[in-house]
Amino acid sequence: MPTPITSTLTSDQQATTGEALQGTVVDLIDLSLIAKQAHWNVLGRNFRSVHLALDELVTVARDFTDEAAERSTAIGVSPDGRASTVAGQSSAKGIGEGWTSDEDVINIVVENLAAIIDRLRARIAVTEEADPVTQDLLISITARLEQLHWMWQAQVA
Amino acid sequence: MPTPITSTLTSDQQATTGEALQGTVVDLIDLSLIAKQAHWNVLGRNFRSVHLALDELVTVARDFTDEAAERSTAIGVSPDGRASTVAGQSSAKGIGEGWTSDEDVINIVVENLAAIIDRLRARIAVTEEADPVTQDLLISITARLEQLHWMWQAQVA
Amino acid sequence: MPTPITSTLTSDQQATTGEALQGTVVDLIDLSLIAKQAHWNVLGRNFRSVHLALDELVTVARDFTDEAAERSTAIGVSPDGRASTVAGQSSAKGIGEGWTSDEDVINIVVENLAAIIDRLRARIAVTEEADPVTQDLLISITARLEQLHWMWQAQVA
Amino acid sequence: MPTPITSTLTSDQQATTGEALQGTVVDLIDLSLIAKQAHWNVLGRNFRSVHLALDELVTVARDFTDEAAERSTAIGVSPDGRASTVAGQSSAKGIGEGWTSDEDVINIVVENLAAIIDRLRARIAVTEEADPVTQDLLISITARLEQLHWMWQAQVA
Amino acid sequence: MPTPITSTLTSDQQATTGEALQGTVVDLIDLSLIAKQAHWNVLGRNFRSVHLALDELVTVARDFTDEAAERSTAIGVSPDGRASTVAGQSSAKGIGEGWTSDEDVINIVVENLAAIIDRLRARIAVTEEADPVTQDLLISITARLEQLHWMWQAQVA
Amino acid sequence: MPTPITSTLTSDQQATTGEALQGTVVDLIDLSLIAKQAHWNVLGRNFRSVHLALDELVTVARDFTDEAAERSTAIGVSPDGRASTVAGQSSAKGIGEGWTSDEDVINIVVENLAAIIDRLRARIAVTEEADPVTQDLLISITARLEQLHWMWQAQVA
Amino acid sequence: MPTPITSTLTSDQQATTGEALQGTVVDLIDLSLIAKQAHWNVLGRNFRSVHLALDELVTVARDFTDEAAERSTAIGVSPDGRASTVAGQSSAKGIGEGWTSDEDVINIVVENLAAIIDRLRARIAVTEEADPVTQDLLISITARLEQLHWMWQAQVA
Amino acid sequence: MPTPITSTLTSDQQATTGEALQGTVVDLIDLSLIAKQAHWNVLGRNFRSVHLALDELVTVARDFTDEAAERSTAIGVSPDGRASTVAGQSSAKGIGEGWTSDEDVINIVVENLAAIIDRLRARIAVTEEADPVTQDLLISITARLEQLHWMWQAQVA
Amino acid sequence: MPTPITSTLTSDQQATTGEALQGTVVDLIDLSLIAKQAHWNVLGRNFRSVHLALDELVTVARDFTDEAAERSTAIGVSPDGRASTVAGQSSAKGIGEGWTSDEDVINIVVENLAAIIDRLRARIAVTEEADPVTQDLLISITARLEQLHWMWQAQVA
Amino acid sequence: MPTPITSTLTSDQQATTGEALQGTVVDLIDLSLIAKQAHWNVLGRNFRSVHLALDELVTVARDFTDEAAERSTAIGVSPDGRASTVAGQSSAKGIGEGWTSDEDVINIVVENLAAIIDRLRARIAVTEEADPVTQDLLISITARLEQLHWMWQAQVA
Amino acid sequence: MPTPITSTLTSDQQATTGEALQGTVVDLIDLSLIAKQAHWNVLGRNFRSVHLALDELVTVARDFTDEAAERSTAIGVSPDGRASTVAGQSSAKGIGEGWTSDEDVINIVVENLAAIIDRLRARIAVTEEADPVTQDLLISITARLEQLHWMWQAQVA
Amino acid sequence: MPTPITSTLTSDQQATTGEALQGTVVDLIDLSLIAKQAHWNVLGRNFRSVHLALDELVTVARDFTDEAAERSTAIGVSPDGRASTVAGQSSAKGIGEGWTSDEDVINIVVENLAAIIDRLRARIAVTEEADPVTQDLLISITARLEQLHWMWQAQVA
């Protein structure tokens, strides 16, 4: 099927922007699955606090996933958020299996957020010329994830 | 780490029930990812109707994922909902990449629901003796998915 | 038109379950009409209290009608809730025409609830093997109607 | 029991108005049952849209039923909304049994609304002298049903 | 000060309509005060039910007071709802001082509603030619008060 | 395309009523644009109060526009609310360009409301025979606009 | 009927407290009627602001009326809030008839509040010994009325 | 463990106030259990009205229990609200076992409220010097319970 | 008074089911009192988290108490939830008096939940034959308490 | 009147930005009128879906109109959103008169959105230097309209 | 400007009360700034719990600031809550600059609350004669701050 | 303590951005205190309108303070919002002590907003290179403050 959704971007702009958004979609889905995994498996004195904060992180990750994927459709690029794609392309650090202590969970969240933010910063740079509308969305996502990065890091600082 | 959460189940009951729940968690996460994928990529005259119905399906899948995973923790079995686990163990039929017509999306949803319901029916049977509390949850999930299966099938009936 | 909605039930299970659900749909629609009839025609010192309680009963009856009818569609059996079907098949005791005293209304509600609960108890028994998902719904309906039966009976106890 | 509720209407006015309201109550209950029947049995590509619109129609029919019946009590005339009365006196066109295509459902709704509106227009005329308060209610009901008639007819126009 | 608010009514229409509205304002304020008085002083087995129903009556009376008074201003006639005006001009039957049994309260409410409805019916007739916009408001008020009249009368029917 | 929406009105009634509604639609859209224009351009000590009151007027005008236009469709007459139609057919007085003092704005609103009410009064008269259902809507619109006319006029009275 | 509601107060305490509460009930009802009268009849550049503020005053007066009257019943003293009682016993300053300028309305509100607060201060003093529970209510009423007194006075300061 | 929470009260003030609050906590928990017991076991024509009013009483008792207990912690005195403490120290009159007629329930509630109010009045007196902050809370509790005492007594007055 | 509420259960079924429900009512009331006691007396670094989680536990215990007690009335067995009954019959482990560290509170909650769940599992078994409707309620209660048991145990795992 | 609202922009920046905003205001008002026109006149099998989606588009257009117009006032440039201005200056494609099929409506919406987005992209470019605050608003508007453009185009893709 | 707001207090009472309120306003503003400062700068394992609790404290401090300042205006004394006044007059203990551990934050909050409560207790004493209405407000503020003092102290007890 | 929160910014970027945010935090806190001071001390005919608008300004200032301070923490720079810091570093114009006329208040607000906006415009420029995420936040704050600046200036224009 030829590309069915048209946009005002040139094909170069579309390619650059589409790649930035596809990477963002995959990273955020993985972040939501990692945070849910931790939400269920966390143990320790701070269980309740961490368990609740993880669900806030899941909500953030899910909402931005949708915004990034629908931005991709808006510029005419089909997004791919299937399990195997996420498993294969994510730039997140992941999480091990089984019950995990609250300290370990906090460190895992901080590491994963740092890795994803790093990629987002690069995507903000490359989309500045290609599509300022997409850049603005990436800035919003980065702003929120950096806020959460501080909140999680503050627990081990 | 030895199993940190205790329950009243025998280890046989725990193994049977834990396996049923782990399979359910994986199937439901995959269902939520498939439905989101379709939500973004659907095209056609019924776009709006299908697009909205898919988000209702996503919500259902996500809510039951959480209930199944937290039932697993309640019986002392660590659930695993990571992307690679989902990609490797899901019993769902999946969805192809790229833009997809509304007719195809409807058929894909019907097939995936049918496959997952089939597995749930089997798990209802095996948990009857092992843990009636878990069985009750699986019955609730099946009731809702069978209702959705009718609604999606009615569109192509 | 051949049956357009498929399910995992055998045709025997489908027949048994479908019959139980059709009877439930008819009984509950009739209950909602009887309760509305009483809601309008009740007279007496306890008018306000009975008038309000009847609307709660109407809401319960309507909500469970929908759940029972949609469970029927989910197993591939077309439900029938038309006025003539209700008039012909209901197992409820009914209500006479015209203004009715509050005492009479209370007795009428108690009798109708008792008759419907009796039929539901039988349907819980026959669906245990045929379809535990449907049985679970019938148990929920019975639980609520038995609670209301107590509340109405308590007024004349 | 002699008429227990008094009003400022003469007995002629009461008879004319009471008849108009009783007819309206019966028609609207039947409309609500027909719409629910269609809500459960509709099939086809527009299933979801029609299924949802039918529930809006049910809500409208139920709310106006209550207003018409309570207007009847307010003028001292006992309303009758029992299943057998509805089955025997309704001026609606009805609906056949079993699964029904979305196209057929739309036509059935349009026909039923047209028949009921026709009767309401006549009742507006006869109540103008008898009771302007009741006429005002009938005008409100007609306004809403004519709006819905347009919306349903627009689907086949 | 000369009349500061202009309208499309002739001065005859304005006089007729203004008088109808002023009478309605006074009657409704008095009704709200009578109902509050009864709300505080009622005694007896049905205390709670009557106490609550009286507050619903107060709310109705207050809301319609405001609508009638602001309709008066809209046609350029200053409304008068001061205590002494209400005490001097009300067509309501009033209520005696001190604790009052629930049976007496119900009869008092029925009598007062009947007297006010009677006056409203006359005002509907006289405003038909003078101002159909005001007539429509008076019809709305009458419809609601007649509904409440039935509900209160039903308690002693 | 021949008229696709049917109604119970004769073609004369339809023409009379359709014309009344089309004029109302145009006047109300223009009123909403005038009020928004004033909302942005008002200056002066009463800026905040006038700015807020204008948005209430916008909301009223928009809601009644929709009711009038959908009443037109319900009787089978296509409404026209396009910018050029509004610019060409409106009976409102309009508003000048640029920043405007609060006193001027109040006078502009009073004049525009007066002009539109005048036309509505005439339409109430002509639709009484043609279609009482439409007349009832025009009465509702007039009632609300006359209330607002008082409120705005009171500021300069 | 002998006093049907008992309390822990001596008959002296009951008399003192009952008198304080009866005076408060009457003053507050009168305040609510005066404020409504002004709400309808106010004219001038600050119409909207004063019109809205008067409704807040009405709400305050009505809520405290109920609290004072129900405190009276709680100590076994029947409250009297009928129109003629209010007209005869109120310590408020009242308001003249007809359209009133916003400046005059503000001064009228300030005067009436001042008169009522003065009486409340005296009642706080006399109930300190008689019934600290009632005193606490009178302090609450005074606190809120003094806040409103400031807000109204600030408009003419 | 030495007293871990400090306050500005002297140890005498703390002892007096702590004792008043502990008695209040116990009485209110008992009141909530008595009211729930009656809520379940009441029979008779006024079942619904009494059943609902008892749940309002339960809510009041529970909310004030929490306020009294947390006031105790705020002054450094550990509150005790365990079942055996309530069973041993309550000054309420209690309720017999088994189904109870609505008339008996009303009398039981009136008696229990009277007994608890009596104790609260004494505690208001003793805390005046010891801690005006606690006294203010006890006044609030008494005000509400005396209001409820009137409402329940009014049913048998 | 002979048993005033009838049901479809045999007297054996009624006895078995009634006993299971009475035990559940007592255990849950005690759980709510123990959790409140801990809510007030907890000390330590995790005070806030534990304090809030205890109130969630109180809400759960109270809601299920009501459901179990009203299920008992529905089968015609009078429930008993008075303080002395709770103090005498509870199968919970209880809690000591005075300020308690957060670690101790967590262990106390885990122990009490484990004891109550153990009894509920036995009651699920004995009600399977006697009354599947009651069994379904006991399964719901167990599901929720086992979830909470995991959440509290996770804090010390 | 000289420009009464000051800003930090130079007069060149103000002119460039004001022009961009004025064009946006006009385009968005026209879009809202076109979408409403289609909302009323659409016919066809997808009537309901298109009818609802058009109202979402109206809401978006109205909200952004207000933001753009108030951004204009914030930089000291009076916006002009009167009917004749819109009719004369809009860059939208418009819509024909009369009943319109759902397919045609979808194409009309897609075309109008494309034209407006094209203009917005140009305005984003010219305001980058002139006023980044305005540019940020234009980016937000474009982001949302491009999302809607995809959703409408997807229906014909 | 001479004092523009009048009250019933003598000038001595006004001076005493005004001073008490001014001190309270300053202390509460400082408390809100200290709590916000801690909200941003807290670090450590209990970050999330402390971070959230601090915002509750901010809300309490802000709400009471407004009540105290508006009580001051109500008695005719202009309150002063400017930054330099707060910096110069506050009786709070303050907080150091920079990142702060959660343990230190808890101790800082406890100390600041203790200092402010101490001052409030003295103000309750001095206003008893001067103005019982103000005293009642100071009691409310103290009650809430002492509750929060317990909650914070419990974390280090 | 070394900087405990890491970010992707270089230390130069961090210094530039941190300084911009610290200035913004201080200015916004001061704005909130100035607006509250005016909220309490304003006098004059427009008291109510200005009093309400000031609270909206307070809410805006407080919300943006939090966003700016938490953006500072997110980039690893500790924000300082203590009273003495605000008193010493604010770039706002401030407000005099005592009662202030509404005209003066409006001018004071306009001046303070202008001064703060001026500083924000400069910070937008310096953060463009240093941190586009922070720049985006500063643009949002400026957009809202410039809107408010127009609204306040319009009152004296």
UniProtKB/TrEMBL annotation, chains A, B, C, D, E, F, G, H, I, J, K, L:
Taxonomic superkingdom: Bacteria
A molecular function GO annotation: oxidoreductase activity, acting on metal ions
PANTHER family: DNA PROTECTION DURING STARVATION PROTEIN 1, GENERAL STRESS PROTEIN 20U
Domain Ferritin/DPS per the UniProt entry, residue ranges: 19-156
UniProt-recorded name of the protein: DNA starvation/stationary phase protection protein
SUPFAM superfamilies: Ferritin-like
Classification via InterPro entries: DPS_DNA-bd (IPR002177), DPS_DNA-bd_CS (IPR023188), Ferritin-like (IPR012347), Ferritin-like_SF (IPR009078), Ferritin_DPS_dom (IPR008331)
Cited Gene3D superfamilies: 1.20.1260.10
Family, as annotated: Belongs to the Dps family.
